[in-house]
Task: structure prediction
Amino acid sequence: MIFTSVNPATGATIAEYPAHTPEQVQQIIARADHAQRAWAEVSLAERTLIMRRIGEEIERAADEAAAIITAEMGKPLSQARAEVMKCKTVCDYIATTALAVLRSETIATEFASSVVRLEPLGLVLSIMPWNFPFWQFFRFAVPALAAGNGVLLKHAPTTWGSALLAVDICRRAGVPHDLVACVMVAEPDVAGLIADARVRAVTFTGSTRGGRAVGALAGGAVKKSVLELGGSDAYLVLHDADLDRAAASCVQQRCLNTGQSCIAAKRFVVDHRVADAFRERVVAMMSALRIGDPLDPSTDLGPLARADLKELLLDQVDRAVRHGARLLVQGVEADVRALDVPGPGFYVRPGLLVDVTPGSVADQEELFGPVAALIVVSSEEEAVSVANGNEYGLGAAVFSRDLERAHRLATRLQAGSVFVNGAVRSDARIPFGGAKNSGYGRELGVYGLKEFVHVKSVVEL
Result:
C-alpha cells in the first residue's frame, strides 16, 4: 500500500510513502519496547532536560515544519508557523513542571511509610489527525516522554511528511532513536497495534466515529485510552455582550485553519435582542477575509485539506438549506462553492447559515469548514438548552458584560472548556479535553502530564 500526500491548494502529488510491512511493524515495536525500558531508567531530571531541547529543535525547524504542514494540508503559512511554535510552549511547560508533578508523594498513615509513585505505562500508541499535524502530536508526546513512556505514531495518511519530521526533531534533541517511531499502517491494521501486548495505552484525536472504534478496541484489551473527538462548540452571545468583541472572536475561531478545528466556534447562539446587529458584524468580518494561496502572507483562508472534506461540507450546507436555513455569503444568499475562489484546489468561501433551528442539520452535525450556524434564542435558559442540545461537549464560550452571569452560565454548559468573553483555545498550562461524545481524558496541564502514568502505592508495615 502507498500513502499519497496531495497539496490541497493545487491538487498535485507531493510525496508517496510505502506502508510498513507486518515484519517491519514488528521490528519497530520491538525496538521501541526495548528503548522504552531503558528510557524508564533515565532520571526524571534528565528526561525533562531533553524535553526542553525538543522545544529548541522545534524552534530551529519552524520554517521547515511550517512549509511541510502548509504543503500537506493547506493551512496558511503564518498559521502553520504559529502551530509549530506553539509546540515549543508545551516543551517549556513540561520542562518546568514535570519534576514537581511526577515526583513521589509520601502519604501520612499509621504505617512505617506510604509512598505513591508515578511510573511510566510503557509504549503509547498515538493516532493523530491531519488538521494540526504538529501540535496534536507534541502536546501528547512531550508529557508522555517526560513520564518515561515510549511513543508510536500512527499519523493521518496524508500528513506523513509532518510526522516524519516531528519524529526526527525528537531524535535531534537527544530522544533515543527507537523510542519515538512512526508506524505507517492502514486503518484496518490499527486493531493489531492496539492488541499488541507491548502497547500499554492509546491516545486518539479525530472523529467521534473513530473514537468509538478505538475506545472499544482499547477497552477490549484492558488498556488506558484518551480520546479527543469531534466538537460543535456553541458561543453564547447574551444581550449585554460587547458585540464587536463577540463577533471578532466568533469569526476568528470559526475560520482559523479554514474552519478545520474541533474547537472552532461552530454555533453562534445569540439573544434575539442583538441578533441582527451581531449578524451584520459577522457577515462583514467574514466578507473581509481573503481566500488564496496558503503561501501568500496576506491569505486568511486556504483550501480545505481534501476533496472529500469539501464535498462533505457542501452536502451538509445543502441539507441545512433544504431544511429551512439560508446561507449568507458576503451578505447575500449565495453558494460557498461559487467560482470566485482560487483553483484548482479544494477551496470554499466562508458563509453564515441563518434561520437555523435547534435540532436541525447545522445544529446537530459538526461542520468542518468555514461555515457557521446562527441560532437565535429568546432567553438564557434557551441558550443553555441549545448549547447542550447535541452530542458534543468539547468547548463553549459565553459573551456578556455581566461576569457573574457569564460564570454562572459557564457552570451549566456541558463542555470540557468554557471561555468567558473570548475564543476557546488550547494552552500548555490548562487541561484540555471533552465531555459527552467529544471524548474523555485530558491532555496538557498537570492533568495531561498524569494521564499516561501507572500509579503505584508502596507501603512499608
About this structure: The radius of gyration is 23 Å.
